[in-house]
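Structure record:
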Amino acid sequence: MTSSSIPPSDPAKEATIGGLLRQLFPLSLSDVIMALGQPLQTAVLARLADPRLTLAAMGIVKAVAHFLESPIIMILHASTALSGSRDSRRSLWNFILMLGGLCSGLFLILNAPGIYDWLFLDLFGATPQVADTARPAMLWMIVWPAFIAWRRYFQGMMIRDKKGRWLGWASVGRLTAFSGLLLFGLAQRGQGASVAARALIGGIFVEAVLAHFFAYRSGASRIPSKQAAGLPATVPAVAHYYFPLAFTMLVVWGGRAGLVALVARAADGPIALAAWPAAWGFCLLIANSTRMVQQIIIAQAESLPASLLLRFAATAGLLCSLVLGALAFTPFGASILLGLLGGEKVLFAAALPVIRMGCVLPLLVAAQNAIQGYCIVEGANWSIQQATMGSLLTTLVVTWLGISWGKPGAFAAILGMLSGLVVEVILLGRGSRLSSRIGQDGS
């Protein structure tokens, strides 16, 4: 299929909540597929030799990978915002090459013998057996940040050019490659950490290649002829534009580590540590379906009314909250959760209240991402950073208070997360120019 054979989008159909929801579906598919990868990986590793050592090792490897990936995450947002301008796009690509190389270089340094032992044995407190098990996976994951940056750059182009359906196909390619490599490793009875890391790298490599290819075939990668005024046009300007976005993600991932440390200190610490990630992951599987409202708003903030885009975000969030509520308050959802927890009724009892409290999470995530989108369009990236700091502080304080008052650790954590999101939405709204945009819609 050539780019000329792809039918152009119809603005009249896009300017409705239904049309925007149809755009959201293929974009959300990428987040849903990424969320599905974790249970598949766990199921395979549990069937290989030394599953406890392997799962522990991969938990640390992925924590390191996510932290070093965190400065890269917002490349998608920057590419969506900047790829419509000639000089901005070229400068962003050069900046990505440097940032991706830096993060992968740091991953390489962490594999050095003395630093590796400090990281696993001292910082994470792992046993020598876990550290030894993780070594091959750490070597495979060196290229992880660079591949993430490559993929997100071309994903942003397609979102900007309203070619988001191709992102869904690239995500399907990633899941196919990831699953195939996992199953191949299972059939070969390979070393678990190596099997998992090869599958992760293989999957993200395939998705990056497909994103690059689809951006080219769809025409989204064509170089714009003009440079928009007010957008960064040089690598230093792009770095200045991007820094608060990268810092925001560093804060988020650092805060999540701090939250886990608080949960471990609850009265039911051992149970809470097991119940919290299971329950939180269950909620995020639904809530993350609303994250891509941000990309749609970035791409169309100047062409569609703010009131319409905000109603679209609220509708997407409400629909996902209703789905999560149906799972949280029905026997069908309870059976799924119990199955994920391996039939452990004690963990189930600790996780179920978290999911029921978390039913409002998709609505809050949709509101958070919608207003963040407007802040990015307006260049108010420091407002995002300040709102994130306020959210993190609120989350940690509320969680600590809940634990101090004897609440179960997982329940205190969801109270903290929801409180933090409410504060973040309020601060983002104050830092954006949404009120004036809505006022212009009505004038």
Q: What stands out?
A: The two ends are 44 Å apart (CA to CA). The mean pLDDT is 82. The longest helix spans residues 17-45.
